Amino acid sequence: MGTDGRRFLRGTWLHVCREQQSNQIQQNVLQVESYCQPTFKHYFARCGAPNGEYRLCSRYTTMYHMAYRRRYVPPSPVVERYQCCPGWRLAHKYAKGCTEAICTQECQNGGRCLRPNACACPAGWTGQYCEIDINECEGTTHGCQQRCENTDGSYECKCQVGFTLAEDGKTCTVCLTCTPEFDFLLARVNLLERDVAQLRQNQSAHVAAHQAPAARQPQNIYAPPPPNDQYIAQMHRVESLSEQISMLEERLADCSCRRRNKGLR
Known about the structure:
Layout: E1 16-22, E2 29-48, E3 54-73, E4 78-84, E5 88-89, E6 100-101, E7 112-115, E8 118-120, E9 125-126, E10 132-133, E11 147-151, E12 154-158, E13 163-165, E14 172-174, H1 180-210, H2 229-264
Antiparallel strand pairs: 1-4, 2-3, 5-6, 7-8, 9-10, 11-12, 13-14
InterPro entries: Dev_Signal_Modulators, EGF, EGF-like_Ca-bd_dom, EGF-type_Asp/Asn_hydroxyl_site, EGF_Ca-bd_CS, EMI_domain, NOTCH1_EGF-like
Pfam families: EGF_CA (PF07645), EMI (PF07546)
Region (Disordered): 207-229
């Protein structure tokens, strides 16, 4: 009892309860008590005489002062003691009141025991012992523009394909380079540009092969032969590839406009 601090508890302190126990003491108990002890004080006062003269008269007055005395009294059948109310305990040995709550189970996820068997939970958690995760995505207060994914004790905002998450972590912006269609069209354009470059190189080599050397005499210069079927086919392929590149560039521009309009809705 001396080590847990209960001997110092007072009934006026917080969460302190009174406990009555049967007194095991059978002998009379010596007590020191205070009382008002009367004393008589003698003094003189002026008083009147029959002949009309004044004279001094003797008087007495009663005065009281605090005194102490010892006496033996029978023991009380009931002894009152004070202890912490159920669910509370002393924070330390000399605490003035039982201010520390007791939770039979430990508070989880950073919770704090606030009242007996009741935890104060941090944001994102609830339950008696903070064991239940709050799904913020079920409500409308998360603020995510497109998608909301619940996590333990929190949530994350996500974006659909073709969008990227902004710096505020909630809104989404258009991102053409993030779409599979953009990657496919870009690969096609690169392939066609390589084919066109190769065909133009072949065309230049074909023309150079049929040109007359500069050192020859004018009379030996002959007009180049008309293009053959292979050369004409290559020229048609170059024109076709150029048209495909133009169409792909138009599709990319149209895709960009549609993505931008969808993001503004």
